[in-house]
User: Which sequence fits this backbone?
């Protein structure tokens, strides 16, 4: 019997791979394979999006009784066509870690004590009331996540912005996607990519800008490699600051010095114009030229503020601006040879080639993150390679719902589900949908994430509720913000699934359900909303983050705004939320459609998804009679920006002579609080390490596995050296992954940010090294 | 006791070599495509340690260009 079941499962495994191969290589045949009858081995399968990155792969979760025992890529999901990665497969194991938080805890006489969850919710509601009475409405805050489901973020915004009247709502997507948003807003006047993953099969050239897709977006990377295998004339260029697995699999790896991608992007534009590779028809009809302020600062001081002042410029002025960026001049700044710059320009400039640019944290966690987003759009706009299949500047997301929950629901201080708090029309719309009196929503944004934690440290914020994120690992310049959270008279509530350094600073811990233990929706990088059902029961007293907020809202007297029953609330919330986007530029699919499909892309108009926005052939929101319509901007045009190269906030000097770069590894999700509890993933990379260039290691007298102390002006961490491991930095740089709470690398990083997006730069600060 | 399946792509022109390499590894079963440079691999290992070693061996195959998981089952869950 056991053997039979095993062979059934193996047949199902083979069937999945064959289905995936069929989606990726149409017409592929496997004559040697005989499908077995009932190959499922009594496993029942239910669809869900994977929760471990922004790619948004559709997976099928295999259930045996009420336990999830298997995962396969969903062949009906166009994102991954049946593929998944090692994290995706192990996602079900993350549900079953031994130390899952199953009971609520409240700090009593300095000690965390288990209590019934209803008592903990009472404590939270009382504390919110007391804090507002003593210190005003802006002394309470909610800090959420790009791993929040859409309903989680929606009810958080409704309670805090609508009912309590404070704009103290932020989410960790500020740390990963804010520059992408401001990049879109400044170039196109509307957020989120114009293209979709289908661009991968159409493109002839891929340029990955500071983006190690082989580890961070492995399924999309596999699709790129499969496309190269199938079409044979596909070129992949890895443009990065260190050598990674992506570099090894690409056709050419080009390394640049940190922050100088700004100069290289301008040099590519210089070359495109010099060689007359400009698509004049497109540029004249669909673009306009602009400049903004320069020398804009780095935000390292409290209360930093910045407002850009856009000015129109002519094409000739833009061309003059680019004179500072000849390939030869930029070679000296960037370390990229003039020949390689010209090569990159020729790929973008060749009218016969379709080009897709991918980026993620490298361009977004950047003190000039908005600018570098603008500059890559410039390249695509000058050549007219945009909004058509295969021609795509594509900003990828890191988290499963950074787009769906944070960008679309608007869980940032200045945002509402539709529009911004500063606009009366947007406030009125929200107040009407939320059944609140006019004037309930404050027209002034309060704190972006870094400033919110500074406000907690200063005492301007006294109460903070943190859900689905672990800021006591992820905040840059961490020592300051942890000390701030621990100060007298600060009250911190943390909703999570496992103990973390953030639950360590909590006064109340709420045990949360995770992923498919609750119903919800995510929104991935390509404007795809993905619904999932509650497939497995949550353990103990666990409660969804949405329901926790609803319970507290009702205790605060907002029953009218949160009237739904436990068996219907997700559908009801979705249909209420959908009203905010009821227009052809952003229409979302109805609940029943979402439930039935493996994700639906918005704008969803007249029953159809929109795959390429701004292109009249594909996007019903475009004005008729024109081929493209960049309708996000009042002038209907996409904006080309003159943005200069400016250096990082802190660069290596005599004393601190190395760059520190931080990031992730494929096996671990962010701070590792889930993936480190999965034995296979934990054993694959059991602890963090510092990658060193072999020559630097030799100068330091360090061999693989020996300890190195990394010291910055803010803190230090001692960890093992990795030399010629999976990543190799150039001389003068070290790289540390941030997944391991035993080595808090963010005690070393700097809280400098892009003045426009307010997103911190985790990729660049100055450190020195000592052999430990 | 994981059972996993993958879609595996060989290095240019190395499909036969890849099939030979994979077939020589214990716990691996392969189904090569007849008309494309792609191979389906099903692995069935008795324990996590063996699985870990197998993963290492797969990563080191010079005939292999990319390997993407499509299915995973773990009876111990
Ligand atoms: S690529 Fe991302 S979404 Fe897809 S399976 Fe892996 S972790 Fe999940």
Assistant:
């Amino acid at each position: 019997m056991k053997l039979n079941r095993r062979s059934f499962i193996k047949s199902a495994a083979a069937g999945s791979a064959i289905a995936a191969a069929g989606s990726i290589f149409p017409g592929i045949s496997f004559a040697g394979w005989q499908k077995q009858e009932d190959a499922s081995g009594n496993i029942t399968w239910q669809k869900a999006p994977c929760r471990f990155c922004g790619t948004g792969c559709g997976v099928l979760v295999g259930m045996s009784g009420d336990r999830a025992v298997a995962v396969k890529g969903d062949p009906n999901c166009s994102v991954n066509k049946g593929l998944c990665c090692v994290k995706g497969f192990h996602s079900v194991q993350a549900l079953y870690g031994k130390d899952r938080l199953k009971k609520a805890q409240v700090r009593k006489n300095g000690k965390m004590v288990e209590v019934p969850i209803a008592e903990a919710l009472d404590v939270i509601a009382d504390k919110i009331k007391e804090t507002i009475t003593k210190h005003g409405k802006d002394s309470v805050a909610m800090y959420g996540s790009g791993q929040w489901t859409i309903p989680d973020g929606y009810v958080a915004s409704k309670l805090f912005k609508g009912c309590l009247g404070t704009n103290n709502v932020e989410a960790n997507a500020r740390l990963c996607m804010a520059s992408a948003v401001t990049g879109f807003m400044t170039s196109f006047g509307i957020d989120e990519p114009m293209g979709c993953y289908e661009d991968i099969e159409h493109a002839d050239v891929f340029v990955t800008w500071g983006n190690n897709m082989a580890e961070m977006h492995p399924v999309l990377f596999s699709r790129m490699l499969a496309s190269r295998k199938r079409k044979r004339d596909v070129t992949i260029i890895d443009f990065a600051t260190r050598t990674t697995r992506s570099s090894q699999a690409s056709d050419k790896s080009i390394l640049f010095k940190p922050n100088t991608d700004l100069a290289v992007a301008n040099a590519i534009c210089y070359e495109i114009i010099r060689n007359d590779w400009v698509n004049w028809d497109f540029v004249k009809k669909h673009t306009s030229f602009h400049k903004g302020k320069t020398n804009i600062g780095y935000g390292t001081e409290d209360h930093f503020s910045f407002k850009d002042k856009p000015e129109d410029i002519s094409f000739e002025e833009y061309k003059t601006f680019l004179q500072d960026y000849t390939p030869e001049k930029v070679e000296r700044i960037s370390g990229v040879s003039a020949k390689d710059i010209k090569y990159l320009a020729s790929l973008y400039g060749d009218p016969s080639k379709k080009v897709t640019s991918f980026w993620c944290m490298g361009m977004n966690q950047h003190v000039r993150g908005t600018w570098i987003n603008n500059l890559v759009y410039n390249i695509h706009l000058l050549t007219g390679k945009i909004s058509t299949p295969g021609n795509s500047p594509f900003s990828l997301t890191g988290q499963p719902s950074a787009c769906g929950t944070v960008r679309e629901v608007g869980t940032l201080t200045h945002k509402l589900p539709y529009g911004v708090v500063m606009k009366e029309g947007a406030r009125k719309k929200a107040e009407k949908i939320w059944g609140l009196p006019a004037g309930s929503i404050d027209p002034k944004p309060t704190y972006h994430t870094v400033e919110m934690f500074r406000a907690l440290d200063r005492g301007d914020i006294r109460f903070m509720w943190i859900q689905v994120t672990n800021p006591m690992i992820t905040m840059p310049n961490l020592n300051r913000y942890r000390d701030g959270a621990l100060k007298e008279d600060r009250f911190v509530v943390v909703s999570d699934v496992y103990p973390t350094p953030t639950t360590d600073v909590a006064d109340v811990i709420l045990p949360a359900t995770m992923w498919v233990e609750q119903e919800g929706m995510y929104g991935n990088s390509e404007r795809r909303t993905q619904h999932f059902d509650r497939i497995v029961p949550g353990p103990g007293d666990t409660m969804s983050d949405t329901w926790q907020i609803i319970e507290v809202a009702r205790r605060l007297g907002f029953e009218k705004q949160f009237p739904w029953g436990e068996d219907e609330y997700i559908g009801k919330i979705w249909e209420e939320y959908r009203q905010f986007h009821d227009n052809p530029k952003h229409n979302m699919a109805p609940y029943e459609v979402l439930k039935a499909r493996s994700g639906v892309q918005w704008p969803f108009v007249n029953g159809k998804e929109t795959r390429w926005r701004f292109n009249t052939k594909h996007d019903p929101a475009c004005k008729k009679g024109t081929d493209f319509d960049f309708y996000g901007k009042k002038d209907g045009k996409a904006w080309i920006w003159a943005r200069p190269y400016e250096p990082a906030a802190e660069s290596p000097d005599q004393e601190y002579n190395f760059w520190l770069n931080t990031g992730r590894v494929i096996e671990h999700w962010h701070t590792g609080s889930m993936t480190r509890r999965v034995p296979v993933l934990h054993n694959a990379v059991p602890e963090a390490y510092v990658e060193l260039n072999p020559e630097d290691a030799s100068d330091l007298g360090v061999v693989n596995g020996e300890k190195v102390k990394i010291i910055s002006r803010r803190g230090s961490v001692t960890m093992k050296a990795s030399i010629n491991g999976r990543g190799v930095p150039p001389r003068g740089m070290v790289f540390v992954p941030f997944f391991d709470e035993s080595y808090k690398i963010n005690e070393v990083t700097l809280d400098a940010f892009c003045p426009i997006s307010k997103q911190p730069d985790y990729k660049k600060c100055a450190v020195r090294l000592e052999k430990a | 006791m994981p059972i996993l399946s993958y879609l595996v792509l060989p290095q240019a022109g190395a499909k036969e070599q890849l099939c030979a390499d994979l077939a020589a590894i214990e716990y691996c079963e392969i189904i090569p495509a007849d008309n494309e440079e792609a191979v389906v691999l099903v692995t069935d290992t008795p324990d996590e340690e063996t699985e870990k070693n197998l993963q290492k061996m797969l990563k080191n195959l010079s005939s292999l260009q990319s390997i993407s998981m499509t299915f995973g089952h773990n009876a111990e869950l």
Remarks:
- Residues A 50, 52-53, 55-57, 80, 84-85, 87-88, 218-219 surround iron/sulfur cluster (CB under 6 Å).
- The CA atoms of residues 512 and 542 of chain A lie 5 Å apart.
